[in-house]
TrEMBL record:
Signal peptide: none annotated. Residues 1-40 are annotated as: Disordered. Gene3D superfamilies: LigB-like. InterPro entries: MEMO1_fam (IPR002737). It comes from Caenorhabditis elegans. This is Protein MEMO1. PANTHER family: PROTEIN MEMO1. Belongs to the MEMO1 family. It holds the Pfam family Memo.
Amino acid sequence: IGRLKTTRGGPTRRRRPAQDQRGPLQYHPRRDTSNAKQSNCLTEPSNHSLHTFFLRVFQNSRALFLRTFGLPFARYLNFILPSEFKMSLNGFGEHTRSASHAGSWYNANQRDLDRQLTKWLDNAGPRIGTARALISPHAGYSYCGETAAYAFKQVVSSAVERVFILGPSHVVALNGCAITTCSKYRTPLGDLIVDHKINEELRATRHFDLMDRRDEESEHSIEMQLPFIAKVMGSKRYTIVPVLVGSLPGSRQQTYGNIFAHYMEDPRNLFVISSDFCHWGERFSFSPYDRHSSIPIYEQITNMDKQGMSAIETLNPAAFNDYLKKTQNTICGRNPILIMLQAAEHFRISNNHTHEFRFLHYTQSNKVRSSVDSSVSYASGVLFVHPN
């Protein structure tokens, strides 16, 4: 049972093109970013054949069975099997996800990577508060490592016991969110332990599927946050909760926001939101600019990104959704960001706290001056919570 991957609403598995360290190649999220159409991934072509109909019926029935009986059945097996055969209740097996992008997207050598992260964090200036959540880019470190350090500089390790990592799916189509079946995530700086208890709680809501192991190894959005987490947390004992985020119509944004608001209320939890900003150029099928303006294209991109950053800083999910509809900006982590905004709003309404989101750094992989150029933008920001 545990090895079967289920998705809500039938099969949606489609692999995406290869990527480089700046971001996805030949792909951008759907241009219609209305609540009903938002998607981080390619969609299955329609097929009305009888074979497809029965396949969907079978897979929907299988998904319903697993969501209903999977966890109780795993508990039953844990009760009757000898200890050497027991499986983890959250994800059916004790596996370690490899550091699959080490050596290409970031340094695989422990000493060199640690030295590099230390340099970036030291250059990020003083800590200005205690992060409850942060937005960090997920490109190759040579492009975005310096920017990511500004957000991670605000993490106070002594206050954190658990790190939720929400990253968009670049590899496979996904409806809603999925959690890992692994017990550890490997980094050159040491293994990070997955929080099985929280995974069980999330799975029990019936709003979380399980990541496919092969897709999980291929995905980079979560992995690129891990070395920074390992670095800033040091030797402190803590756990991680990796969450892969797919398509989220408006009502599901609120559903996941309400679920995660419960955990955001706990100051021992840190949320890391993985997202790059504008993917501009023909290879992303997104290259809007004012041809008659004297403002360079890269500055026009900056202005568009900073409008989105300002919308996020309002901590108003509707403002960010409106911005996405208006600009169609290819912010790949928009759905993880919207979950954070929904959770923060729910938390703010139910508690006597003042919330502040502040962006600290912004860069681009390339200063676009010609319509044949391309670039990916990176921004880092932090959510601070102040009790009244």
